[in-house]
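Supplementary Methods, section 5.1.

A reviewer requested that the exact input to the structure prediction be made available. We therefore reproduce it here, unchanged from the version used in the analyses.
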Amino acid sequence: MSNNIRQEYDEQGYVIVRNAIDADLARETAEHVHWLAKKYPDVRPERLGHDLLVNDPFMHRLVGDDRLLDIIEQFIGSDIALFAAHYIAKPPRDGKEVLWHQDGTYWPLEPMEVSTIWLAATDSTIENGCLRVLPGTQNNRLLSRAELQDVADGSNVLDSGIHPSQIDDSDVVDLELKAGDISIHNPQIIHGSKPNLSDKWRIGLTLRYIPTSTWVKRETHANILLRGNKDLSVNNLYAERPIFNPEEHMPFRGQEDWVAV
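The structure derived from this sequence is encoded token-by-token as follows.
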């Protein structure tokens, strides 16, 4: 399986792995979004980003799950950190579109050695706005931020995207996933998603894993060291292991491993 998923990723720019995590953990991930929505009522559920997650014990537990790390190790090696986590959770009948883009356009990484896990916490379908990719476009040139079209009208998640005249979506693939499935995609592949106009939530979590040799060019940005060793030649900042506080954090299975000793 290892050779097959890496080969498909290299050829297509993405790959799907079914049942990457168990149903209970997927359910807790969805519950985490609803818990965060109550904690941060002024934040859209599509914008629950890294700054809100990097010191959360449940997020550390989830992104460091050995099943996910064993998969991502095949792509970036054994010294693994998380550069960014971001829930893109689309509520029923009101979930926002994500315009066509390449992830690497937005990221301050050198070199651009990074792979994204897109984790389905709920079923992700065409009807509720699943991730869509243009296979093979990982071989395209990485566009700069200045080359994108600004669409800051509140209708989409990123407020920008690739101009429609530059897109040929005749080969588009809709990545329909069951809760607990993941897809993995290249930072240069062109992808996006339609709005959620269905009656069901679409809760996805993007996890951006990097080898510790990748430099994150933001001095105050905290990464999460997950497996292996730091690269001492790279000046990256790492978050401390959080301590579970029932007054501040969502209860979860295994929380006892995150209490003060």
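The first helix runs from residue 2 to 12. These observations are discussed further in the main text.
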